[in-house]
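Priority: medium. Attachment 1 of 2:
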């Protein structure tokens, strides 16, 4: 990250900032979980550093970081708290997304000189009724990560005129937030549901989902040379998988240190580190984490190769990235599960990070984009030349 010259507002290298921030996220993780939102100090520190401006184009007041640079910071932050890192990452990604909108919309988004915080539930579960001057929007959307910290909300609704999905942006005050995010993991994302009842949204505050997905958005013309044309779903899928990488790396570090000092009470005080099965479990976990990291590194490089191609990126490359992201989450889950199964009951105390890492990655695994069977079917049929459909989420 330092090689690019990108730094925080106070001049720190971003990697150094993220490593230090991860320690603070770890200290706040239990409280953030109870709050089901980012800790206020976390939001304040990320805002002060300029974190939410990382991905946005320089011409929009952002830093124009590459996706690989951004993903590295997400991984580092997730070593402290995967749930908090996910939320911070998506708030930054959403600021990037609003830069795809027309100039008049961006004038509103950036009117106060700050990066807009605009959660964006992606499923098109609402309706946008065409009226003079815009759309009347109604619907309910799950899940709006970071809605507890937002200024705006982007909802994806079916355009009554075209039958196609269209993103509609509105001030968060125009929506009702349903407090439903009572989860076993990823609690601090606060990914509540959003309900909108007959809200008028001007034309310029909407964007066809096809333009949001990749290529030809108004924002690309406003911010030439930026990453705005990168395929949204594959980029988003990697952003969402990366907290699992940081969580697994942190879990491995914790497990190694714990096994060095843990005593077996029913073994006459035998050190856990002297037990052969401990060596085997640790070796398995190391192998899974190393494999996960190699797949993640390769996928980050692939995003940089394929991203500039935008909508012309071949379906084979997009399917490969989808498969990589699902494999990353699968390997992270397996690694943490191996460690949790052999760490002893004391690892389940709420004061221990391993139990939270286990729960968080299990919830990440449940995301539709990481459904292993579904993703493997997609990869296989693309490899054999079969066409993809809307349900394949490409």
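Attachment 2 of 2:
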């Amino acid at each position: 990250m330092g090689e690019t010259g990108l730094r925080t507002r106070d001049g720190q290298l971003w990697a150094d900032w993220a490593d230090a921030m991860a320690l603070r996220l770890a200290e706040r993780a239990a409280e953030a979980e109870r709050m089901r939102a980012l800790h206020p100090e976390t939001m304040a520190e990320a805002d002060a550093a300029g974190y939410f401006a990382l991905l946005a184009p320089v011409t929009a007041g952002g830093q124009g970081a590459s996706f690989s640079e951004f993903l590295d910071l997400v991984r580092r932050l997730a070593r402290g708290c995967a749930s908090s890192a996910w939320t911070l990452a998506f708030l930054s990604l959403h600021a990037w997304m609003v830069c795809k909108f027309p100039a008049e919309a961006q004038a509103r988004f950036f009117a106060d000189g700050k990066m807009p915080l605009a959660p964006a539930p992606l499923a098109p579960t609402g309706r946008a009724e065409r009226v003079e001057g815009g759309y009347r929007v109604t619907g309910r959307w799950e899940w709006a990560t970071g809605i507890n910290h937002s200024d705006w909300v982007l909802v994806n609704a079916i355009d009554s005129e075209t039958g196609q999905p269209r993103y509609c942006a509105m001030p968060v005050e125009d929506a009702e937030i349903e407090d439903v995010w009572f989860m076993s993991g990823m609690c601090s994302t606060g990914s509540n549901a959003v309900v909108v009842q007959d809200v008028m949204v001007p034309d310029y505050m909407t964007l066809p989902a096809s333009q949001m997905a990749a290529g030809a958005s108004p924002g690309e013309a406003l911010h030439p040379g930026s990453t705005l044309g990168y395929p949204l779903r594959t980029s988003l899928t990697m952003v969402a998988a990366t907290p699992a990488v940081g969580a697994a790396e942190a879990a491995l570090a914790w497990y190694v240190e714990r096994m060095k000092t843990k005593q077996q009470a029913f073994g006459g005080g035998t050190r856990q580190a002297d037990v052969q099965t401990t060596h085997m479990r640790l070796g398995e976990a190391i192998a899974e984490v190393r494999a996960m990291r190699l797949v993640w590194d390769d996928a980050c490089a692939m995003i940089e190769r394929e991203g500039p191609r935008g909508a012309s990126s071949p379906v084979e490359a997009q399917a490969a990235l989808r498969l990589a992201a699902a494999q990353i989450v699968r390997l992270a889950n397996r690694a943490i599960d191996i460690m949790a199964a052999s760490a002893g009951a004391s690892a389940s105390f709420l004061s221990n990070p391993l139990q939270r890492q286990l729960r968080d990655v299990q919830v990440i695994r449940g995301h539709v984009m990481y459904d292993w069977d579904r993703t493997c079917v997609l990869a296989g049929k693309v490899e054999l030349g079969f066409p993809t459909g809307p349900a394949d989420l490409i």
